[in-house]
């Protein structure tokens, strides 16, 4: 098992890519702390337990700095370490530039960018103390190439990539790696409302002519969170079937 005895925090772990990450990490031997505002996280934790894995669910928003700080302290005090932080929580509120409201801008910035900052800032003291850590954050190929109607989302994902590269420089001497993953079009609940005809058109635009499943993305997180990637830091791993080329 590639994550045997590791303690991993996964934000946004209740659905989609986050759910796939959570289940894969537990299968690979990690104790997984699921953070999400969606109650489905409880069911994910129970399902993992029935399979012999270890997981717990905590209903906390990544934008709540005080709650995140308390929770991370509790995790560290309980387990004696925090090995892995997966910053996966994210939302969309799409609108063209001229129609996008300030609340729509702020909501996406708060979760996708500020939330990543809050969680990473909270975990770093523990990782520094143990001289070990893996931080992997959710970017998007939209952060590399932009996308119509996603000014707010694209800005956050480009920001995640830049923050990860900055943390590589600041934290590397403590044995901490920081990387980002840029998924492409993935069949999750986030795209469930897209008409089938449009989904097929998107697939046709992808060089591999198919969309990703959440597990396709989760395997990238597994690699970067594992000791196999001990010398990999400051990268953005694009998993998008060749779209952002």
Overall pLDDT score: 96
Rg (C-alpha, Å): 17 Å
Widest sheet, order of strands: 3-2-1-4-5-6-7
Class per helix and strand makeup: alpha/beta
pLDDT < 50 runs, ≥5 residues: none
Largest sheet data:
7 strands, parallel
CATH architecture: 3-Layer(aba) Sandwich
Tally of contiguous helical segments: 8
Shape: globular
Helical percentage: 40-55%
Oligomer classification: single chain
Q: What is the number of beta strands? A: 7
Family: Belongs to the short-chain dehydrogenases/reductases (SDR) family.
GO molecular function: oxidoreductase activity
Keywords: Oxidoreductase
Organism: Croceitalea dokdonensis DOKDO 023
How is the secondary structure organized here?
Blueprint: E1 7-11, H1 16-27, E2 31-35, H2 40-50, E3 54-58, H3 65-79, E4 84-87, H4 102-130, E5 133-138, H5 142-145, H6 151-171, E6 176-183, H7 196-205, H8 214-225, E7 236-239
Parallel strand pairs: 1-2, 1-4, 2-3, 4-5, 5-6, 6-7
Helix pairs in contact: 1-8, 3-4, 4-6
